[in-house]
Amino acid sequence: MIVLRTNGLGKSFTLHLQGSVTIPVLENVELSVRAGECIALTGPSGAGKSTLMRCLYGNYGAEAGSIHLRHRDAEIEMTAADPRMMREIRRDTLGYVSQFLRVIPRVATRDIVAEPLIARGTPRDAALARATELLRRLNLPDALHDLPPATFSGGEQQRVNLARGFAAGHPIMLLDEPTASLDAANAEVVIQLIQEAKAAGSALVGIFHDLPVRDRVADRLFTVEPIRKAA
Ligand SMILES: Nc1ncnc2c1ncn2[C@@H]1O[C@H](COP(=O)(O)OP(=O)(O)OP(=O)(O)O)[C@@H](O)[C@H]1O
Predict the structure, then answer these.
(1) For residues 155 and 7, which has the higher predicted lDDT (pLDDT)?
(2) Average pLDDT rounded to a whole number, residues 196-223
(3) 229 found inside a domain
(4) What is the ipTM of this complex?
(5) Interacting residues of 87 by C-beta distance below 8 A, sequence separation 6+
């Protein structure tokens, strides 16, 4: 079953400080993702992979075309969704694991990881237990679980972010370089988490600059073509 699909998706940036020059980035993107599969976005640097991810998450409005997403047994046209619907989609259906943790001051790591699960209605104790399990799998020492992650290393913060991203088990997940700052042992855990999410029926779209990781998790590659070269 296709759970995420774009039709003729287009996006350009207008640089208002430079005489309103318009830079086209995405043109006529036709992507479809099924439940249980992982698609890796490829294409040269600057082709528009991150831009496509941000469009899929609704951070950038699409200028042309549409994005259809399966949310609670209905198909939603995301480009027409109001802010309340977008919040609901992000809470229940669409997860995004960015490369960097947005640190929330004074909130303990375990609570940061459990928060998306609690938001989806999981009882607090069960959510905290799941958070602990994920943090341990990602080799974050127990002594750190009660501390806010502001002072953690880059790799530790990324693991907190990954634990948070995988905690809620969203049916559709967007992964932006999920192993970028990780050592081999932790990258291996992330590969397992991705495989488990697929087995549970989640659809994943990711950018993986680490090719051995990409080859182990991706079912298909989707090439984002640079427009100027394609034209
Ligand atoms: N907010 C923005 N304003 C203006 N131009 C932008 C903006 N974001 C991205 N771009 C431009 O859009 C193009 C695509 O950028 P994007 O980051 O999506 O590429 P990418 O394929 O993810 O690259 P990389 O592999 O290097 O991360 C680039 O030419 C970039 O300069």
Answers:
(1) 7
(2) 96
(3) no
(4) 0.96
(5) none
- Report the CATH number that the domain containing residue 28 is assigned in CATH: 3.40.50.300
Distance separating alpha carbons of residues 12 and 228, to the nearest angstrom: 12
Q: Which two tokens stand for residue 8?
A: 């003729």
51 CA → ligand 1 middle, Å:
6
CB contact burial 9-29 (16+ within 10 A = b; e otherwise):
bbbeeeeeeeeeeeeebbbeb
- Is residue 45 included in any domain, yes or no? yes
The token duo for 189 is 């855990």
Q: Residue type at 160?
A: V
The total of structural domains in the chain comes to 1
In a domain, 181, yes or no: yes
The number of the ligand 1 atom at minimal distance from the alpha carbon of 51 is: 18
Using a cut of 0.80, tell me whether the model's pTM lies above it: yes
Residue 231 belongs to some domain of the structure: no
Cα 49 to ligand 1 centre (Å): 8
Span 138-148, pLDDT tens digits: 999 999 999 99
Residue 66 belongs to domain spanning = 2-223
Distance CA 22, CA 37 (A): 35
